[in-house]
Design goal:
OB fold (Dihydrolipoamide Acetyltransferase, E2P), DNA polymerase, domain 1, 5 strands, 51% helix, 19% strand
């Protein structure tokens, strides 16, 4: 297994880089997150790698941050998520945003990524929630209470007879304007004033 490469950055593109190490050029697939962290071509870099071996190919993926590689490995362990979808996920959102969404059970954020449906998004959260907290630690991930409070408030408002879509708009506005995570009661009281 190739753990990392240290060499000269020969070619830099949004989807791949070429790193030369002792006369050998390595073609690495990268995410937009890694692309943003890369310096100019022809500079010496150190990049973490993941080697994917299949029957018909060997593909090398590159990551500027070790945490991004660990998240990539967790994502490809989920059934239905291949290396290309995992790379798309890391290109669409920051690794931190993905970890936060998984930890807080935010299906809509995961589902907003191209190629991810509702079932796959739920599977990602179900399979990885505990692993993400274990690998990255709760201190690194912001697990918001507001997500569960928001859901509880919405179901209460639905029970009171309000349409979910209009209630969701009002609740989202309340959540954005709040300086700290509001309680379920506070959300409901403010929403009732605005509905």
């Amino acid at each position: 297994m190739i753990h990392h490469l240290r060499g000269q950055l020969i070619e830099k593109n949004p989807t791949h880089v070429v790193v030369e190490c002792n006369g050998v050029g390595y073609f690495l697939h990268i995410s937009l997150h890694t692309f943003a962290l890369l310096r100019n071509a022809s500079e010496a870099i150190s990049i973490f790698t993941h080697l994917q071996v299949k029957e018909d190919s060997q593909t090398l993926f590159g990551f500027m941050e070790k945490s991004e590689r660990e998240l990539f490995r967790l994502l490809i362990s989920v059934s239905g998520i291949g290396a290309s979808i995992a790379r798309t996920m890391l290109s669409s959102l920051d690794p931190k945003q993905i970890m936060d969404a998984i930890a807080s059970g935010d299906v809509s954020t995961i589902q907003s990524i191209k190629g991810i449906g509702a079932k796959t998004a739920q599977r990602v959260i179900l399979d990885l929630k505990d692993k993400v907290l274990k690998v990255f630690g709760e201190g690194e991930i912001f697990v918001s209470q507001s997500n569960t409070n928001k859901e509880e408030a919405l179901s209460a408002l639905e029970t009171l007879g309000f349409a979910r879509k209009s209630a969701e708009k009002v609740v989202d506005r309340i959540m954005k304007e709040a300086t700290e995570d509001p309680t379920v009661e506070t959300i409901i009281k403010l929403a009732l004033k605005n509905l």
